[in-house]
Amino acid sequence: METIKRKPAPPLGHPPYNVNGEGGRPRRFTEEFVNNEADEFLLWIKKPNNLWFEDFAEERDYNARLLSEWAKENSRFREAYERAKQKQKSILIKGGLLNKFNSKIVTFCLMNCSDMVEKQAQTKSNNEAESVLLSIDGNSKDIVNDQK
User: Fold this and answer.
1) Residue 106's domain spans which residues?
2) pLDDT of 51-93, one tens digit each?
3) Cα dist. 10→6, 19, 23, 27 in Å?
4) Residue, of 66 and 23, whose pLDDT is higher
5) Stated pTM of the model
6) Structural domain includes residue 47
7) String of b and e for 39-51 (b: at least 16 CB within 10 Å)?
8) Which of 38, 43, 124, 141 fits as disulfide partner to 77, beta carbons 3.0 to 4.6 Å?
9) Helices 65-73 and 75-97, interaxial angle, to 10°?
10) Is the pLDDT of residue 142 over 80?
11) Is residue 143 in a domain?
């Protein structure tokens, strides 16, 4: 017979534990605060020298990880975060094209902080192609070598 595990009951006089998803640690930041931070974030990213999101969080004395958490939980902050990412991407690309920023750091930032990826062309030499064929069927008798 299978036993059913039940959560322990709360102490007498204590409200029920996490019924229907409520409970957990209390929120440190109210929705009003996060909405205000969304507005401030958009104003901050419009200033010419502001580029790196962690600087915004540092200036406001909280962990930069909260920005992405708020973007998941709050639609207003999500919109501000997406717009700020677009602005950041634009600044990085323009700075790279105009040689204002080091091209390697621009590439690194765009590949790690945006949706951009670096594409690499792959070519195979005859020996590499032969090794691929050998690994497929194990026979080299069918390989044609046109070298004379």
Assistant:
1) 28-113
2) 999 999 999 999 999 999 999 999 999 999 999 999 999 998 9
3) 12, 11, 13, 21
4) 66
5) 0.61
6) yes
7) eebeebbeeeebb
8) 38
9) 130
10) no
11) no
CA dihedral of 121, 127, 133, 134, whole degrees rounded to 10? -140
39 belongs to a structural domain = yes
Express each pLDDT in 81-130 by its tens digit: 999 999 999 998 999 999 999 989 888 888 887 777 777 766 655 566 55
Question: Are the C-beta atoms of 78 and 35 separated by less than 8 Å?
Answer: no
pLDDT tens-digit readout, 7-18: 667 788 877 666
Number of domains in the chain: 1
Centroid of chain to Cα 1: 46
Distances (CA, A) of 101 to 47, 94, 105, 114, 118: 17, 9, 7, 17, 18
- Amino acid found at 126: N
What token pair was written down for 96? 């790279």
